[in-house]
Amino acid sequence: MSDNIEGKVVVITGASSGLGEASARLLSADGARVVLGARRHDRIEALAGELTGKGGKAIAVTTDVTACEEVKKLVDAAVQTYGRIDVIINNAGLMPQSPLERLRIDEWDRMIDVNIKGVLYGIVAALPYMKQQKAGHIINVSSAAGHKVRAGGAVYAATKHAVLALSEGLRQEVKPYNIRTTVISPGAVATELPNSITEPDVAAGFHKFYEEFAIPADSFARAVAFAIGQPNDVDINEILFRPTRQEL
Ligand SMILES: NC(=O)c1ccc[n+]([C@@H]2O[C@H](COP(=O)([O-])OP(=O)(O)OC[C@H]3O[C@@H](n4cnc5c(N)ncnc54)[C@H](OP(=O)(O)O)[C@@H]3O)[C@@H](O)[C@H]2O)c1
Asked: pLDDT tens across 147-174, in order?
């Protein structure tokens, strides 16, 4: 399946840990040229260095996805360095879950800014290039929480439902430009994500759940590689996967 991955220029937001990092490693091993964006510059620099040391092509660009100009600079860097952009993975996100009655407005704002507006800014940055190329692939990251709402997770679920809605609208709109769209909805995958929960009782519950149920981040990377690796006339629009043992 790696046939249609080799040589592709893939921009990944949230590449400093978890799902983004795992995707960068797998796609680089499959011959993609990866452009890594995140705020923790030391981490993406180290990863780019590691991938380059193994014979891959990788650059790191410090990016906060809540700033549209920074996301544009990330994508511009891909085009300046490698001449084009084939794929963007709008992956950066956070999950500070808490019941609505705790009124964590700061965290709701943050989730809306990163999980929804960050995805929109990735589209803003990549779409003009992809339209011009008449080729490209936009991969957005939703969640099982984009399909099921659970008490205590309303705002996170709302942001991930929004990503599903945006992805379906995008899918229909970019047909004339030969652009593929995929939205991937993972269940529990072992990453740093539960560390973004600040309410101690909620965090304790999630850490326990993740320790028991979460599967390795490669699971996500393989889903990404599956979607990208298809022949150009095959558009994998939605992938929902969970740990086999996870119910909701
Ligand atoms: N793990 C799961 O169980 C799971 C399940 C469903 C969906 N997801 C989704 O998968 C995506 C990746 O999460 P993960 O599980 O890999 O968690 P993670 O290990 O915490 O990684 C989150 C990534 O997002 C980046 N990020 C956060 N805020 C950012 C900002 N303002 N600007 C740029 N980058 C930012 C972080 O980088 P910096 O901090 O360095 O900026 C980090 O690289 C998220 O959208 C999450 O909602 C995860």
From this structure: 999 999 999 999 999 999 999 999 999 9
